[in-house]
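Each lists sequence, tokenised fold; shown next:
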Amino acid sequence: MDINASLFGQAITFAILVWFTMKFVWPPLVKALDERAARIADGLSAADRARQDLENAEKMAADRLREAKSHAADIIAQAEKRSAQIVDEAKGHAKIEGERLLAGAQAEIGQQIQQAREMLRQQVAELAIAGAEKILQREVDQNKHAEMLASIKAEL
């Protein structure tokens, strides 16, 4: 056997191997590689979509947070305004109540002054009657009369 025949046999065997590989081995490998490439591409596109969805969700969350803060600020402003109204109303009610109590106290003081005057008039009248009785019971003497008037003045 010659080197050419062995080389020719090896070439035929290699050609059969190449044909067999191309016919039976290569298509499943290519198919598996294509499927893997498709899965990787799908995974990358899903990752991109997920990243975009995450960015959109973050934007929406930030917008909602801003809206919530704005709404909370509005509620706080309304609460402060209402509390100021309540304080003003309470001041008004307190002023009215104070004026009412003051008027009542002044009326009561006026009544007490009137009662005190009436009592004083009664006492003065009683003293005048008592003095007149004493004067009439004693004889009319200028000195005694002056003493009685002095004692009546002292009592008043």
Summary: The first helix runs from residue 3 to 137.
